[in-house]
Amino acid sequence: MAKKKDKEITCTVEFTEGAIDRITEAFVDLYYGIKNGIYEGPLLENEKNEKPA
Length: 53
What we know:
Layout lengths: L18 H17 L18
């Protein structure tokens, strides 16, 4: 069976003013949400979830 060759896709992304700050803030919120047990996700090897009692 021959493998189908995928077409190459080009994608251009333009960030609006302040986009980098909003993206960074979202990742920080997600990190602390995972750390506090609000969301499930991976943490660094030396960190633990700090689930509230």
